[in-house]
Fold:
Amino acid sequence: MPRHRITQTDVAAMAGVSQATVSFVLNGSTPSGVRISEETRQRVLDAIRITGYAANPAAQRLAGGLTQILGVFTYEATFPRVSQDFYGPFLVGIEHAAERLGVDILLFTSARVVDGRRRLTRDGWQRLGVADGCLLLGQHEDRGELQHLLDTNYPFVFIGKRGSDGNRLPYVGADYVGATMRQVDRLAALGHRRIGYMGMRGTDQPTLDRVEGYRAAMRARGLTARFVELDDLADAAAEILAQRLTAVVVAPENYPEELADELELRGARVPDDVSVLLLGQPHHPRRGGRRWSGFCVPREEMGVRALHLLSRLVAADGGRSDREGRRTPGVPDAELHQILACPDVEGATLARPQADTLAAPRAETLAQPHADTSRTDRRDRTDRTDRTDRTDRTDRTSRTDRTTEDRTESA
Amino acid sequence: MPRHRITQTDVAAMAGVSQATVSFVLNGSTPSGVRISEETRQRVLDAIRITGYAANPAAQRLAGGLTQILGVFTYEATFPRVSQDFYGPFLVGIEHAAERLGVDILLFTSARVVDGRRRLTRDGWQRLGVADGCLLLGQHEDRGELQHLLDTNYPFVFIGKRGSDGNRLPYVGADYVGATMRQVDRLAALGHRRIGYMGMRGTDQPTLDRVEGYRAAMRARGLTARFVELDDLADAAAEILAQRLTAVVVAPENYPEELADELELRGARVPDDVSVLLLGQPHHPRRGGRRWSGFCVPREEMGVRALHLLSRLVAADGGRSDREGRRTPGVPDAELHQILACPDVEGATLARPQADTLAAPRAETLAQPHADTSRTDRRDRTDRTDRTDRTDRTDRTSRTDRTTEDRTESA
DNA sequence: TCAACGTGATGATGCGCATTATTAACGCGG
DNA sequence: CCGCGTTAATAATGCGCATCATCACGTTGA
Structure:
């Protein structure tokens, strides 16, 4: 048994050339004034075929070449538990794309968790090096780390839109803004006018986008934006009824299932009395739970696209850092930021509003256990200020700040 | 920005020692007559801490060291789509274990598919090399490839019991035999006597084990083994009723959901008239489908255990092939083959047999659309011959061949 | 006084490949 | 006959690390 794996030197010997020549043939030669005659080229190629030579990735990488290994790193404390997790489906897409691309996937499961999120420090950096490039998942990325990636010109792609200073960061995101607008439109088309929004806390990009979409769509229809945001779901349900909302859109992380329970507990049926549209897939689908209407984030597709993009970046980069500071021909800027559409989902939580609700308020007939009507949420604007740092957003038609409008409404 | 990543040489310079010394300190020095005084050791350690040095995996690997990267290879044509697939849950467990172990996971998604299964030829071999060791998934392993792994002393662990010449192959499997026996016992304990088995085709290990368990348990209770195996599920359902079986155990790949449909179509309720126990998790769970009784394979746990075992093998091996042919102290043989218990699942498809069924046959009252009663399956022994090559099985109490018994029964 | 030995560390080498610098052979005009 | 440009290929180097063979320097025992 050839304990000694076949190397370029072996191939070279068989072809009667030098190791360097083999390397040149394998890599298209071009680098400097090196030429290989078509004849020897064929000889080498034959030798490779006969010996079944295959490059040693470690050696390739050490010498500055490419490995055909792409990495996946996540900022979340726990690595995508491939299905239970929100991030799981991305991995599925990534795997799929990797198969087609013929690359291997390296999961950086070893990165240490510090302060509830994974860090890319120290050993992290070095480990990244085995891969030609890396996919980044999760919300809580670290500025310093990113800067380092940028500085070293290490190819990477984010999964999930990057708002702040996003034009520097390649990403594949989902069109939360547009999809949310469509949900409002669906409701409006059925006759809904009092449409609420639940779940606007958090400064993560999806939430910001959903809120933006909601605001824009409501405004476009001349409707009033109403935010329901209470710590307690029971209170929230009460508030929805108190405000005589006929529909709410809600982000999936806000326990829609439980919200519906609370609503029905108070005599309001879903969707007959209150339609509920989910702005994404349910996070913890209940066994035999509702089939939610709303939209779904094409997570697998995002994974696929992200890996393809990364693959292109790597190819463009040639894996080497550019010594002259000038970028290789590379990838057109348009592809650097991809926003994928989120298709609507036809579920069982969307219905026409009740006729009487349309005509006149009769919410009083609905039970309001311990609802404090005057307690309209005032927190819906607390973090409005942070929108200022998002002005450098790239695409999406810019929407003016409608803070004042909201303020008058939510009183 | 230090484009030049920190190397052992840098650390050495700071500590005022040679690069070799740094390497020794990092690896516990021992190799030959090398000694490092505690003082310099500390000096080096400090330098490492200060510089934040971390080894370059590619270089380590090239020089014959370990990478802390463990690979996952699958023989299936498609890589475990991390949840839809049967193999998905294993990956989840593997990820989990990897996090705790502090290793990275390399998915060999690039291996080419030949003849419907992935191959480890050529480039495959080399790519394996980046990882310290590798987990193997799937049924259709190739002899030649395994032999090569064995020859090169490359550390690997199978997920799933390996019957044929299993003592040479480290694996983590599930106790299909025992679990299947328990299912029969559950049924018998409720009063079932006419218990059938469906889904015995195939020579994969799980199937062999299930059949073995069924046979053993039936025999232990003095009951008659009855195999139902028809190409058409409708026929199978008819056969079950014709034979007046009050219960069947069925492997999950045999469309239990559809079988139940067919049974009920013929007026036999599940489980009231026929109990159905599933020998594993359902493969394609239907939305709002039955909650199956039976047992479940602890797939995540298997993934975890497998990775742990692999990790130990790697550590024992030192990553180097043994030049003298003698194994490193290593892992006790007992751990090389792990069989995990499959806990019972309490579902809704198990019930006491009908009183009248117990007393006297009255199957005639049940509809038998186009059942050919005389058509007892004769195929249930066609591949019995291949059991001969399994005589070298390791653990599990050996069970004598009961072919004759079955033959008399199935007439 | 010197060989024998233990201690603490270093220099050199090679893993397999990419790449740069250099060489060899050849044709050709002056 | 020499210098020059062109083509075709090679030698040499280094990536970062593990390891083997050595070496310098005491300490002992005879």
